[in-house]
Amino acid sequence: MQLREYNTVIKNPRNIDLRVASCYPGPYRTAMSSLGYHIIYHLLNSREDVWCERVIHPYPRSFESGSPLRDFDLLSFTIHYEEDYLRVLQMLKDGGLGVRKDERSGPLVIAGGPCITSNPLPVSDFIDLFIIGEAEPVLDQVADLCIELDDPRSDIEEFMDIRGVYVPDNPAERVIVEDMDRACHPVRQIVPETTEKSLTPSLGRSFLLGVSRGCSRGCRFCMSGYLYRPKRETSLERLLEIAAEGRRATGYDRISLIGAAASDYSRIEELCSELTDMGFMVSMPSLRIESLTETLLDTLAGGGLRTVTVAPESTMKIRRSLNKPIEDSMVLEKTGMALEMGLRVKMYFLIGVPGETSEDLRELASFMKKLSDMRRGAVSFSVNPLIPKPHTPMQWEGYDSKTLKKKIRFMRNLLKGLPVKFAGPRNGLIQYVLSCGGPDVGKLLEMAASSRVPFREWERHTPGWRPGDRLPWNNIDLGFREDFLMEEYIKMKRGILTDWCDESGCHGCMRKGCRG
C-alpha cells in the first residue's frame, strides 16, 4: 500500500485513559470522503485522555499504530449502508474478536450511522450499544462512562441513562445537533497522498464543508429525510471561516459542500460566489433539480464539475405520491440548461413504487427517451428498485422481487439503445431484509459472513409489515407525533401532497416542534 497521510493524530498510549478504534466497514476512498467519519476522529482526539485511531476495511490494523481491534478499549463503527453489516462481522473476526456479543470479551463495541438510527435490530446480536441520531451530543458521555467503569460490557445498563444511546430491548430517543454553528466542523481533515486509485478519496482532493443537516422536502421514500429532521444550516459567516481555516490546515483549494440537501442551502449562490472569490473551486456530490440555476451551475462548472447528478425518480403521477412534485417541464428545462453549458447529466429513477402500473412504466420510458434525445450520449440513467425503509411512510410496504424482475425486463425492452443501468431486484431484496428485519436477521448475517446464503433464505426472512403491526424499531423514538407517518402513508396512497415546509410553514410533524 503506497499511502502517505497528513493531519493524523499520534499520541503516547501511556498518557491516555481510553483507546478508541473508529471503524469504517467500507473502502478507504469512501471513508476519507465521509464528513461524519472525520467528525468522530476530530471530536475524540480533541480530548487529552482519549486516542482515536482508524481501522478501515479490509485492513485489519489501525492506520495510526498498526494495532488490531482486540487491543482497543472501545470500537466505534460508522455504518452508512446495510450492505456493510457483513463487513462489520468480518472486521471483528479479523481483529481477533468474537463476532457475537454474548460470546465476546474485550472492548465495548458501539455503532452509529443512518441505518443504525433507523433500525439497529438486525445487528443487535453483534453490537453492545448503538448511537441513535448524531454523534456529537453523545460520544463524550459514552467515552466518560467507559473510562469510569472497570468493565463497560458487564455494566452495559449504565449507558441507558444517556439520551441517544440504545441498548437492545430498551427505549431510546434520537439526539441531534440543534445549532450548526456549534457543531463539530473538523478543520484538520486527514490528507492522503497516493498514486493508487483505490486509496484516492471518492470526492477527490477536496475539503469537506458541512453546510447543512436534515432536509425539509418530505420525500416519502427517503430515510435520511425523516431521520434527521429538521433541516439545520451552518451560517454563511461560519462556513467561510471554516473554509479559510481548512485551506490552511489541508492545503486544499477545492471544497465539497456536504449536506442531505446541500443545494437547498438558503444562501447557496452567495456561498458559492464568496468561496469562488476566495479562490476555491466548489463542488457538490449531488444536486436537487429544484435548486439548479444557471449561476449555480456556472460556479460548479468552474470548480471542475463535469457531470450533474439529479433524481427525477419517476413520472409526475408517481412523483406526486412520493411527495416530490417536480413537473416534467422543469426536469427538461434544467437538463437543457446543464447540457447547454457542456455538462453531462446522470439521472436516477425508481421502479416498484406503490401504485405503479405498466402504463406508468411506459410513460416513464417515453420521458427518459425524450431526455436522452436532448443530446445523445450526454444523458445517462440509473434505474433502481424502491427499498422500503423504517421510519418512513414506506415502512408498511413490502418488496416483491419477482414482480420487480418482470418490470425491469419490461423497461429494458422499452429502453433498448439507451445508456441505462438497472440495479438487480435480488440485491434489493437483501437490502430490504437488512433494513426492515428484526433480530432474527442476525442468524442470517452470521451465515452469510462465512458462506453463501441461498436466495430463498433471504426471501424467507422478507418481513412485509402492515399497518397495525408492532415494528421491530418501535423502541426507537425519532420525535414524530404518533400519527404523522400514518397520515403520510394515507396521503401517499391517495396521491396527496404535503407542501415543502420551507415555503408553507411547519406541519407539526415533531412532538416538540422543529427543535429535534
Automatic annotation (TrEMBL):
CDD domains: Radical_SAM. One of its GO terms (molecular function) is metal ion binding. Signal peptide: none annotated. Residues 201-426 form the Radical SAM core domain. SMART domains: Elp3. It comes from the Archaea. Keywords: Iron, Iron-sulfur, Metal-binding, S-adenosyl-L-methionine. This is Radical SAM protein.
